[in-house]
Amino acid sequence: MDWGNYVVTHLSLNMQSAIERISKHEAAIAPVNDIEAIVNDPHVATRENIVAVEDDELGGSLRMQNVVGKFSSTPGTICDSEPRLGEYNCEALVGMLGFDEAEVRAQDIELDPAATRPLGG
After folding, report:
1. What would the pLDDT profile of 73-96 be if each residue is shown by its tens digit?
2. Mind giving me the DSSP string for 67-83?
3. Residue 40's pLDDT is what?
4. Domain count of the fold of the chain
């Protein structure tokens, strides 16, 4: 059963009212945010949990989850969005796994290095 929907629909309570009502009984409760609530949450914004990353394929910025856990010595960053389909075929199949380039091409797998960028950057 979707209890959140039940509370709002049948008891005519909004989220805050439901939390206050249940909290009076010292029961554990917390909201489950939808995407809109997450990206508009001041705490999420302050912690920079959502970041905009440029995406060449989409031709603009893409908002995505940032690195979780911010360490002072190794803070972590998101350099770009996901790789294009097949972007690392040559590096992974030939360079790391040792497949023969001609055999891979014979399977109609694209290995064009001009269409790829180096792994990790």
Report:
1. 888 888 788 888 888 899 999 999
2. -SS--SS------SSPP
3. 92
4. 3
- Shared-domain flag, residues 62 and 88: no
Q: Report the distance separating Cα 75 and Cα 12, nearest Å.
A: 44
- Judge if 15 and 38 occupy the same domain: no
Confidence (pLDDT) at 81: 82
Q: 5 pLDDT exceeds 90?
A: no
Q: Which domain holds residue 92?
A: 83-121
Q: Are residues 75 and 91 in the same domain?
A: no
pTM of the shown model: 0.54
Same domain, 37 and 61: yes
